[in-house]
Amino acid sequence: MVLVAVALAAAAIVSDDPPSLAHSEAKGVIKERMDLMQGLKDTVKAVTPMFKGKAPYEKAKVKAAGKHIHAHAGADMTELFPKDSLQHPSDALPKIWDDWPDFTSRAKDLKSLGKDLARTAGKSAPEGVTLSPEVAKLLPATATFKKIVKTCTSCHETYRKPW
Ligand code: HEC
User: Fold this and answer.
1) Which of 32, 40, 56, 93 has a Cα-to-Cα distance from 136 of 20 to 30 A?
2) Options 3.40.190.10, 1.20.120.10, 1.20.120.1460, 3.40.50.410; which CATH number does 2-159 get?
3) pLDDT value for 34
4) Which InterPro entries does the record associate with it (predicted)?
């Protein structure tokens, strides 16, 4: 059940593409944060099949994903949201600056979860084996990955225009 939820949430993230090509017009800090977010999406997408039992589990890849997430969250993410930066084609909501402490604390949570993923990537995990969903859900890294995906989606639900 847990894994099904992870798979569904991850699928939602992976299909998280902008509705039109408008985003190619983004400039400055809006473009920088869209690029950062797209990089996170690619990272999540690269490891999702391992947690779904659809690709061999590779510790180094999971560890690298954790490090990437760690490096692009926290202040590295929130500094790309200067006050009232809502220029076209941004999908950010003004609520970000009304609830700035909550917004930044979510970005910080993501940063520490990235570190947890890097740390737990190799724990109890066999290298190069495609895990069954039953086994995959027992891995410490799976629990962390699930939290990461939840952190992405819940921040989007709160602070980004629905697509
Ligand atoms: C602290 C809140 C927050 C967290 C955490 C967060 N995001 Fe975002 N994300 C946003 C906001 C706000 C936008 C809209 C930015 C804009 O359009 O200006 C966004 C936009 C995006 C986009 C669309 C980018 C584009 O080209 O328009 C993708 C993809 C994305 N996020 C993926 C992720 C992934 C994957 C994670 C987790 C690993 C994540 N985000 C974590 C707030 C967050």
Assistant:
1) 40
2) 1.20.120.10
3) 97
4) Cyt_c/b562 (IPR010980), Cyt_c_II (IPR002321), Cyt_c_prime (IPR012127)
